Amino acid sequence: MNADLIKDVRRNNPLIHHLTNQVVMNFTANGLLAFGGAPVMAKAEKEAAEMASAADGVLINIGTLTPEELPAMIRAGISANRKGIPVVLDPVGVAATDFRKDAVKQLTDEIQFTAIKGNAGELAHLVSTPWEARGVDSVGDGDANEVVQSVAETFQTSAIITGKTDFIYTDGNLYTNDSGHPLLGKITGAGCLLGSIITACLSSGDAAKDSLLTAVSFYGHAAEFAAQQHNVTGPGSFSPMFIDALSLDPAQLQERKI
């Protein structure tokens, strides 16, 4: 984890344009604010490109995608590419329906993504690797190392598979992260918020390896910290404590108390 990178993000307070799903907007906005970024949620096609051109990074998340939102996502992504800012794809539940599959195909055809992040089943689907999924969840087993590398090479991007162990493939190298806590899997939007934190870290201009490893490791350590607080007894009390933990300095996460 690069503590200086986090300090830079907080100093710059990057504006991250979210075209994300309706279920997680509030949680994502609060989480990014706590971390040190500035969220904006704008999905209207008429303003998507303009908003992206004013931002420091763009996150595209298809969790509650509608046909009307897809053109806005494409416009925002193209605008981000023109400006040279990071654009991240979270293909939530891509394997669940043909509509999602077709949408992601259009997105990856039109936009050069800086990073693609998802669970193992989602990323496996992008490269036609068999992997069992249920709705938006990955429930099967397979070779995550092979999948994350294949996604990165196929789409010429950095790829992140999240799970008990996170797998990151960027610039021809594979990295792993083991920080985290099972309670992340018990709250809605944990993966979606991580996409926002990743986008903010990528906006720092540091190497992709440093940005991605810092994002996922800090996120995991924040979850561990939150889960260990005496007043956290389950998912409901974990969620607000996790938001608090995202605002801390990396060194504070090692103290294990607030």
From TrEMBL:
**Could you say which residues bind ATP here?**
117, 162
Q: Return the InterPro entries for the record.
A: Hyethyz_kinase, Ribokinase-like
Give the signal peptide range.
none
As recorded in UniProt, its EC number(s) are: 2.7.1.50
Q: Which residues bind substrate?
A: 41, 189
- Record's keyword terms, sorted: ATP-binding, Kinase, Magnesium, Metal-binding, Nucleotide-binding, Thiamine biosynthesis, Transferase
Does Transferase show up as a keyword for this record? Answer: yes
* Keyword Transferase assigned: yes
Q: Which GO terms describe its cellular component?
A: cytosol
The organism sits in which domain of life?
A: Bacteria
Q: In which pathway does it act?
A: Cofactor biosynthesis; thiamine diphosphate biosynthesis; 4-methyl-5-(2-phosphoethyl)-thiazole from 5-(2-hydroxyethyl)-4-methylthiazole: step 1/1
Q: Which PANTHER family match?
A: HYDROXYMETHYLPYRIMIDINE_PHOSPHOMETHYLPYRIMIDINE KINASE THI20-RELATED, PHOSPHOMETHYLPYRIMIDINE KINASE
Chain's role: Catalyzes the phosphorylation of the hydroxyl group of 4-methyl-5-beta-hydroxyethylthiazole (THZ).
In Swiss-Prot or TrEMBL terms, this protein is called: Hydroxyethylthiazole kinase
Q: What is the lineage of its organism?
A: Bacteria, Bacillati, Bacillota, Bacilli, Bacillales
